[in-house]
Amino acid sequence: MSTSAFSLEGKVALVTGANTGLGQGMALALADAGADIALVGRLSPEETLAGIKAAGRRSHFVKADLSSAEAVAEIVAEVVKALGTVDILVNNAGIIQRNDSIDFTVEEWDSVMNTNLRTLFFLSQAAAKQMMAAGRGGKIINIASMLSFQGGIRVPSYTASKSGVMGLTKTLANEWARHGINVNAIAPGYFATNNTAALRADEVRNAEILGRIPAGRWGDPADLGGATVFLASSASDYVQGITLPVDGGWLAR
Ligand code: NAP
């Protein structure tokens, strides 16, 4: 197989939550592989837009708050208008709330479930409708977590949402494979982003986590590039419903 199976030339990718962190790393990797990129989020992602431009690709920013799924159809329509279609969707935007389960509030539950699972489902549905109408197949990549596999502690809504993401990835893969749409997930291990700032600032937890990662370091957003391009490209056309850990060996321990 030639490396051209990994090329994303002529493809349009929609990445949610790409102003920072893992979303930014994945958007830049997709642009480097040849895709034009639509970014969806609450804040204008200046740094990511500049990186896409430097890679010589087109980009478009859609301002939207993904804590509600109301705008999903408009988001897809705007991307189609600006960049022509949607071939690849990366459902990255996500939040975490930490509290003892005994004290966990309805707000802490709903906010995480809405952004991490409810909007992810309805945006996938809206993108898949566009992919089916365009008849070019498609690739959906959901961002799962180590807590799709493990229970975690003090993060009940996060664990529920990310375990849901892993299950939903299989359901959607089963239903949409016959339309040439691959639905898969990536489960990042422990990466240095805003999402893990509190953990890294806690000396005890930081040392515990680092001591358990065979690679001996926190992940860098660029570490997700290879898996993302693989799952977005025709190199993965016969890969369906998997959740691929990119974790420096965390789950192997
Ligand atoms: P991050 O730096 O906090 O980035 C999260 C992104 O999601 C930001 O762009 C954020 O935008 C966006 N977002 C959150 N709520 C949103 C909303 N209501 N509407 C629109 N955008 C919203 O965290 P990250 O570590 O890169 O996380 C990205 C994904 O990876 C998440 O799904 C997270 O659960 C997952 N993950 C992270 C790790 C890790 O170790 N870092 C491990 C496993 C999984 P704003 O700037 O507007 O908030």
Could you characterize what this model shows?
With 253 residues, the protein is an alpha/beta fold. The chain has a single domain, classed as 3-Layer(aba) Sandwich (Rossmann fold), CATH 3.40.50.720. Strands 3-2-1-4-5-6-7 form a seven-stranded parallel β-sheet, with helices on both faces. Helices cover 42% and strands 15% of the residues. The two termini are 33 Å apart. Helix 1 packs across helix 8 and helix 4 runs parallel beside helix 5. Strand 5, helix 5 and strand 6 form a beta-alpha-beta unit. NADP nicotinamide-adenine-dinucleotide phosphate binds next to helix 1. It catalyses: 2-dehydro-3-deoxy-D-gluconate + NAD(+) = 3-deoxy-D-glycero-2,5-hexodiulosonate + NADH + H(+). Keywords: NAD, Oxidoreductase. Belongs to the short-chain dehydrogenases/reductases (SDR) family.
